[in-house]
């Protein structure tokens, strides 16, 4: 007779049972995170994502701009005024129509580039680098949208500060006086502000949504998306206020040579007005971008969900299930 062996039933072992539960929990969490950060494993439809991003981004941008334009006007006038000058509160909607004509394609381009880029990068990067994917997609989206955003911003801010009375006149006169380059005044300072702004805001927003979804084990509703968007926008707006002040001063100076570039602008402001001048308009900016983030992301996610529900494949998959 051979040696006596002791057989232990794995199912009856407390340690084995505990290990099994921990493995299941870890696997479930990973699946949950993967489905949240990358979406369910479906074929990557670039043109569908691009199209839906254009529609959702354009809708969100127009709604935000229309609702919060007066706050943006006050912020611009606060930043543009020198020393102890007074802020004019008339014509707070000056330039809105022309600005929407630029905001619509700019927002559409941004989200249209951001969404497919984000989803492609999330499939390429490991889970622990999802923030890098969001940062990169946000910066690339901002870079693409800047080709439309900058001329729109130049015209808008010149009208907000009373230099022109209509968008067509502003475009015509800026081009005649300053050349085509005048429509891209402050372009480098705009990129200096907007690329980090877009990258940081969307990264904070996406990472908070991922964490919330993992914790709640469900999709977010519109109010929850709006609250997270407000939080991400307010923080990012406060951090990037000095960059916004520099961008505003360079854009509104026109053909004048008060500032010869970004570094000269910073040095001149600090020397003549003190370092605190770099935080001019921080209150309206944080309020504007905080509320704007709430509206933008709420409308964005709602529109994306609406478009997704109208996909023919979505309806067909739902029937099969």
From TrEMBL:
Record PANTHER family: S-ADENOSYLMETHIONINE MITOCHONDRIAL CARRIER PROTEIN
Say which family it is in.
Belongs to the mitochondrial carrier (TC 2.A.29) family.
Q: What is this protein called?
A: S-adenosylmethionine carrier 1, chloroplastic/mitochondrial isoform X1
The annotated region (Disordered) lies at: 1-21
Gene name for this UniProt entry: LOC107421993
Return the Polar residues bias intervals: 12-21
Q: Which organism is it from?
A: Ziziphus jujuba
According to its record, what are the GO cellular component terms? chloroplast membrane
**Start and stop residues of the Solcar repeats:** 48-120, 129-211, 224-306
